[in-house]
Amino acid sequence: MIRFTHAVRPVAILAALSSPLxxxxxxxxxxxxxxxxxxxxxxxxxxxxxxxxxxxxxxNDVQGRRVLLFDPALSKFTIVADSTSATANAYGGRxxxxxxxxxxxxxFADPSSVSMLVIDPAGKxxxxxxxPRAEDANTIGSxxxxxxxxxxxxxxxxxxLRFGGPGGGGTRTIIAGPGGGGANAIPQFPEPPxxxxxxxxxxxxxKLDTVGVIRTPKIKLETRTDERGGISxxxxxxxxxxxxxxxxxxxxxxxxxxxxxxxxxxxxxxxTRVSAAKxxxxxxxxxxxxxxxxxxxxxxxxxxxxxxxxxxxTGAPPAGGGGSSPNVQIFIGPGGPGGGPGGGAxxxxxxxxxxxxxxxxxxxxxPPFFAxxxxxxxxxxxxxxxxxxxxxxxxxxxxxxxxxxxxxxxxQVPANHTIxxxxxxxxxxxLNRDGTTATLEKATVR
Length: 446
What we know:
- By secondary structure, this protein is mainly beta.
- The protein has helices at residues 10-17, 137-140, 288-305, and strands at 29-31, 35-38, 48-51, 57-61, 66-70, 77-82, 97-100, 106-110, 115-119, 125-130, 148-149, 155-158, 195-201, 208-215, 220-225, 231-237, 245-248, 254-258, 263-267, 273-275, 329-332, 348-349, 355-356, 369-376, 382-386, 397-401, 407-412, 417-423, 427-434, 437-444.
- It is built from three helices and 30 strands.
- The chain is globular.
């Protein structure tokens, strides 16, 4: 039996016994500052921008496979690298990554050539160097790798998936048939990890070490056999995964934003590690009915968007949902795609089918953010694009977290806009999407 004295009130007892996920006081939402420049050039997607001290802007147009240097007004541009004969610098056949380097110089990491182009402030490629670890070229050169430099000049990035446990397996090895495989071998699928290593490498010595671990979407595989004996294996997407994200602050610290309880772990430039307090968030509990409705809404949104729906590989949340689980569909057996004439047993890869996990496997609380939602500005702050827990008119809302890991502001950008980078003097760059095309805009933070 609990007895209350004059010093202990029932309200206090209820507060102590209640869930730690109760919403705390959060700053009021304010609007982003005014737009000061717009591009007339259109894009399909921009992975990142690199703002220089003179106001010029390097843009990584990943869908167009080109790097452009815009003037401060975003009205004119020159081609730094592309996939045509327009320049001597090839972008390559796959997406690459644009990384801030020393001063106003930048690096473009191209996984196709396993090389890095060093770009000066005028947009000229001054030299080409090899990616420090060839086996990591795909991740260093991918926007998912989020390659950046820390305060000591070490290249920090998300390492590729490893299977087979410590000391074994390769990068992104999905299929391994018994006895070395073969046309009729039954494939063995290792359990994909639900975490990823954040590593850093010294460009001079190529020495690599692990700086932290982040939680990534769990990849669930589904295997089916048809009436002809064919086997299909596809991944199931979790449209609402609980994940971590990370970025490097303007002073070179590595910040890990944890999604489970929403706080920031810092690895400071001097090597010390600090875990900040939990960030207040309006945690929304999801009932069984809510989970079913959420899955249905994501499916409906994808059907409406059709071919224009974002894929989970981009890390961009589709309308009504998000996540970044890789999607794979493989067919093995008679009549499967990729088989020989008349239907062979040769493995083949078919068009991705975006299937979803059962609704009851969604989290009990909506997580605060999707993968790829964290960016650092030039003032030492971290911006987190949050998942809405209530209907809010307008565009996405970003939590602004200071260098101490404290929530200091909540900022809303216009509808159909997404932050793709920050510049000096409290400037911010946004992708303004209109259907299948988009333009680049520059605005003030306030």
